[in-house]
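SAMPLE LOG
Freezer: B-3
Tube label: C17
Construct: single chain, 273 aa
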Amino acid sequence: MKRTTRFEVPFETRHFTPFQLQTKALCEIANSGWSRWLKAHMIPFPQLIKQHRVSFVIAGLKLNYLHPLTFFDADSLEATFAPTVRAGGKMIVWDIDFAANDHQVAQARFATIPVLIRDEMLSALPGLLPDTVYQQFTPEECLPDRPKRYVGELVQSIEENGRYLTSGTHPIFLHRHVCEVADQWSYTELTSHAAGSREMLALQQGQAFPDLIHGLSQPLRQVDAELARPYYAFDDGSVESKAYCYEGRLTLVHRLFCDVGPGLPHAVVVEQF
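STRUCTURE (predicted):
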């Protein structure tokens, strides 16, 4: 049997933009959801780290908005979580349905990679789920294959087939309030960094490129992201944002960099309107 966890989140004004649910709010609910699932069906997250010396990091996420929803349309959101362990414990994929007023309003998939804790500072390396953890999943929750990485192909298609509009680069700084207990960045801020850069691009260049105004005045339809390496507390970085008209809609490709290091993106985020 595939086990699920379902819970209700009463709405607050901070959950919304004027147009829709905040992507950051959905990411924060996702964090709460898999912690709830672990506590209900396996072991509380802190004990998983302390006793089994294993945690999870986000490798990628996909978020689709399916039905319009604004702050006054409903009183709460119902979230339903179900995990699937893939490739013998190399990855755990969390599928999440978000509903309001008995309508599915959004759907998400978060791909997480197990990391093995090495010391009390919570430094870790990627690895397989320990047998003591893997065996606690049911056969229905385990699949042999590993999901294909697709964000790179999506970006390539956008860059080859989309009509390029403009680009801009905006600084970010990793204060501790956007990090987690190990002083590494929290992925829940990833979509906020992308959204902030997109809004700055629209404010700075919207008069020259009117299509950019959709980035301030229309709801998002889809967000896809892939994470490659962490930031740490007090890192300086930047978001490079490129805007396209792709398949008839405004699409932005954001690459997040750090001011020190090899110069490779820490993450890539694609926003489609």
